[in-house]
Amino acid sequence: MLSIDTAIKMGIRQNQRERLNSCINDLMFMSKSFLFISEIDVKTHDSEYLKMFHANTSEMLETIGLDIDDISSSMNQIIEKEEAKQC
User: How would you class 68 by CB atoms within 10 Å of its CB: exposed for 0-12, middle for 13-18, buried for 19 or more?
Assistant: First the structure.
C-alpha cells in the first residue's frame, strides 16, 4: 500500500508528464502550422507575428518550468543526429 506522500508525488509527476506531453503536442502543432504558413507567403507575416509566436511558446514552456532556448538547443541536436543517420 502506498503512503499518502508517495501517492501525491506520483500524482504530481503524472500531472507534470501530462502537461509536458500536452505542451509538446501544442508546440509541434504550432511549429508545423508556422512552417506551413511561412512556406505559403513569408511576406504576409511580419515580425509582429513572429514575436507573438515566440512569446506564446515561451510562456507555455515557462508554465511547466522549461526554457525555450533549452528546447531549441535540444531540438537542434535531435535534428542533427537524425540528419547524420540519413547520410
Answer: middle
How many domains does one find in the chain? 1
Q: Give the torsion sign (CA, 29, 36, 74, 59).
A: negative
DSSP SS3 for 2:
coil
> Which ranges of 41-67 would DSSP assign to H, the alpha helix?
47-63
- Where in the sequence is the domain holding 16, given as residue range(s)? 4-86
6-65: per-residue pLDDT in tens?
Answer: 766 677 677 777 777 777 777 777 666 665 555 545 555 556 666 666 677 667 667 666
